[in-house]
Amino acid sequence: MNIPSSETLTPAPRTSDPEQLATEILERLKYRIGKDPKVAKPHDWLTAAILVARDRVTDNWMDSTKRTYAEGRKRVYYLSLEFLIGRLMRDTMTNIGIMDSMRIALASLGVDIDVIAELEPDAALGNGGLGRLAACFMESMATVDVPAYGYGIRYVHGLFRQQMSDGWQVELPENWLAHGNPWEFERRESSYEIGFGGSVDTVDVGDEAIRYVWKPAERVIATAYDTPVAGWRGQRVNTLRLWTAAPIDPILLDAFNAGDHIGALRESNKAESLARVLYPADATPAGQELRLRQEFFFSSASLQDILRRHLQQFPDFTSLPDAVAIQLNDTHPAVAVAELIRLLMDVHGLDIEQAWSIARATFSYTNHTLLPEALESWPVPLFERLLPRHMQIVYAINAMILMEARRQKTHTDQQIRSISLIDEGGERRVRMGNLAFVGSHSINGVSALHTELMKETVFADLHRLYPDRINNKTNGITPRRWLMQCNPGLLSLIREAIGDKFMDDTEALKDLETFATDSSFQEKFAAVKRQNKVRLAKLVRERMGVRIDPSSMFDIQTKRIHEYKRQLLNIIEAISLYDQMRSRPELDWVPRVKVFSGKAAPSYHNAKLIIKLANDVARVINNDPAVRGLLKVVFVPNYNVSLAEVIIPAADLSEQISTAGMEASGTGNMKFGLNGALTIGTLDGANVEMRDHVGADNIMIFGMTAEEVAKVRADTYNPRAIIEGSKELQQALSAIASGVFSPGDTGRFADLVDGLYSHDWFMVAADFDAYAKAQREVDALWTDQPAWYNKTILNTARMGWFSSDRTIRQYAREIWRA
Ligand SMILES: *Cc1c(COP(=O)(O)O)cnc(C)c1O
């Protein structure tokens, strides 16, 4: 047969001049969407434009895959239950360099690219920082030329949409796939069976060896959907592969024919529930069976896919650790450790020692939290019922680990118990953090402080047993989305000042330092900030009907609502400021707008109460003529990536005020700093390293250190005494408790206020005075605008190190060896 080579079939590279693009858009519109331009709706234009961009990305995607093979490159697999992607159109078009031509092409067809860009739904397949990190990493891995696949779940419903009803959070289902998803390719051929439950048989295979055969009671099919992820300049395109679940028998015909129409769909509903919704809790484990099913489902599908791909290129699995690195994003995919061993032993015939050593050389694990209550564990009976073979493997690994620990004779019985994969205190549970730790050759924290605390707290005993495994990889953010796209005004200004080098090497932003004291540059920097504030003010007016003045200081705290992040501290300080402005109107107060945005986990009572308090305080303050022009408070609903892209560039002041020792890293802090906000924050997470980079004079640090928090907690912390000793704090709390913000309902915020008096676990009272003092210093600085802009310009100039390109290079060099 005479098959033409793929070379002769490959068309000449497409130009990206606007005329060519316009022609292609019309083609897609007609032949792929079936619409005439005369009747096409904005959504149709969006889909057509994305399809054109996707085709161009696809060319580079195939080249990247070929190059990976040809160069024998190691592949990195990033397993994450969350990818908080946001929109992809601007990102992709910018990265492959067709954004300007696309704008012209669409304009020539009478379509405004900014209008259709707003129609693209956010892919919100994540809760907060952890999921956004995974998304930034995908873009950076492509940018720094690491051959990588992201693996996750294609949730039909991403993170809920947040609406306000009388100031309370209401959760509505999110429906990002309603208009289809033009970015993805369905891969029917990449399908795998995933089992649950059932029993384990043993088969004698001679030589006194036995083989285990898991006979699952239930099976579902995992099918892949691929989204290409283009790096900056488009040279490498990697794959985000998300799994969807389908039943083996879509309909039970016997049941259907017997008239049981609902029962006939039982299997189908059960399978599809696996990929239906993202669990909406941030930093607390969901604990339900469906969650464990989701974790195993995507881990197993991903590993089967990885092993299949490996065998296409290599004769066996001894080479797996050289060809493959698998990163576990938190413990959510930790069951993959047991699943890889099962596949290698039961399906591919390796013995347990071989399988175990291959697994450990292949896996690495990123820890994201120290909160003991946030560490995942599963009741042994549930784990055993759902994954009987994996339970055996966990016991087998545990026996090996505990033997090793005993042999070293350095651990007490108590320490041995803390190393065990099984928590024996009370209800027996499988500890996923310990499983991930022992199954990995590298365990990393996400900031320098967090990594040190990991060694001292959660993993102290495992760290003593394996002292060379824990390492730090401080998080980063992609400067493409979080500077170049979200802040076009600042982008132009920087290019004008220092050229384009920083676009390929973010640390070259340092060249801006010399402009920090240049008054004409300061004015231009301030003008860009003002434009961004006008843009946010417009959004706030349109969405909420509240007017905010762009000449006020925009003081912003946006992130998940959580007690440890201490939005409550910020709200109480706002109340106190309000009180002082009213009682001393003769003083020259700095006009402020306090902006909040963020979602609370639907079952998190206190977090939802904090949202209600912010809204109630906002209503009172915003309607009080005594502080008109001086103070406004707004809570912008439905925080997500696209909203963050509007809010962050408009910030003058960035609130990063978590209880020290509790925020593993934070990445919101980095986004604000990069976009020229001054940070007010505690010495927590990556704030510590931000201070080191931008300089202690250019960041407003206050409050207790992690060490002090631990010490005060261990001693007898008496929040009541502190509150009673702080006039401002006491007045603010009495105002809340007496119903100033909840007329006729004085008990509304009792859970919050009483909590502060009785235990104040998050040290709001202990840090209040220091925080209020730091805020007044911020005010003083604001009144000296040249000094203010000097500092904020230095923030932008010195935040380049926090690019996720740097983070990924460190992972690649030190963990993946890719
Ligand atoms: C960056 C980001 C986060 C993380 O913010 P932190 O302040 O680090 O908690 C959460 N949600 C969205 C939408 C983000 O873009």
Automatic annotation (TrEMBL):
<dbReference type="InterPro" id="IPR035090">
    <property type="entry name" value="Pyridoxal_P_attach_site"/>
</dbReference>
<comment type="function">
    <text>Allosteric enzyme that catalyzes the rate-limiting step in glycogen catabolism, the phosphorolytic cleavage of glycogen to produce glucose-1-phosphate, and plays a central role in maintaining cellular and organismal glucose homeostasis.</text>
</comment>
<comment type="similarity">
    <text>Belongs to the glycogen phosphorylase family.</text>
</comment>
<protein>
    <recommendedName>
        <fullName>Alpha-1,4 glucan phosphorylase</fullName>
        <ecNumber>2.4.1.1</ecNumber>
    </recommendedName>
</protein>
<dbReference type="InterPro" id="IPR011833">
    <property type="entry name" value="Glycg_phsphrylas"/>
</dbReference>
<keyword id="KW-0808">Transferase</keyword>
<dbReference type="Pfam" id="PF00343">
    <property type="entry name" value="Phosphorylase"/>
</dbReference>
<keyword id="KW-0119">Carbohydrate metabolism</keyword>
<comment type="function">
    <text>Phosphorylase is an important allosteric enzyme in carbohydrate metabolism. Enzymes from different sources differ in their regulatory mechanisms and in their natural substrates. However, all known phosphorylases share catalytic and structural properties.</text>
</comment>
<keyword id="KW-0328">Glycosyltransferase</keyword>
<dbReference type="InterPro" id="IPR000811">
    <property type="entry name" value="Glyco_trans_35"/>
</dbReference>
<keyword id="KW-0663">Pyridoxal phosphate</keyword>
<dbReference type="GO" id="GO:0004645">
    <property type="term" value="F:1,4-alpha-oligoglucan phosphorylase activity"/>
</dbReference>
